Amino acid sequence: MMLSDLATVIRSKNAGPFELTFDVLFATQDDFMRVVRSEILSAKAFAELFRIPISDVISVVEFEPALAVKITIKRSRSSGAFGEMDVYGAQQHAPLLQVEVP
Asked: What is the CA angle 47-53-56, rounded to 5?
């Protein structure tokens, strides 16, 4: 099953000019726990998926009351910098749509 089949929301956005944040929200406790237990959104897995150093993964927060996982990473270029192609960070979540959940 794909992460996009289990999550009700998968999005990315700026967290200031130098960071991006990714939100993955679930409708059920079972779906949330399945993904958390699988560790597909761990710092290591996220760094591999986005081809960034693990040191660029600032935080991974699993917030059970909201059935949500929030990952924050350093931007490779600041928002609006020369050569930067997504000023709002709203299109960076695409690789998460194809993640398989064991």
From this structure: 85
CATH topology for the 3-77 domain: Alpha-Beta Plaits (3.30.70)
Q: What is the pLDDT of residues 52-87, one digit of tens each?
A: 999 999 999 999 999 999 999 999 888 888 888 888
Q: What phi and psi, each to the nearest 5 degrees, are found at residue 86?
A: -145, 80
What tokens does 31 get?
């779906």
The residue ranges of every structural domain in the chain are 3-77
Amino acid at 53: P
pTM for this model (two decimals)? 0.92
- Fill in the amino acid letter for 39: E
Count of CB atoms within 10 A of residue 58's CB? 15
d(CA 85, CA 59) in angstroms, rounded, equals 23
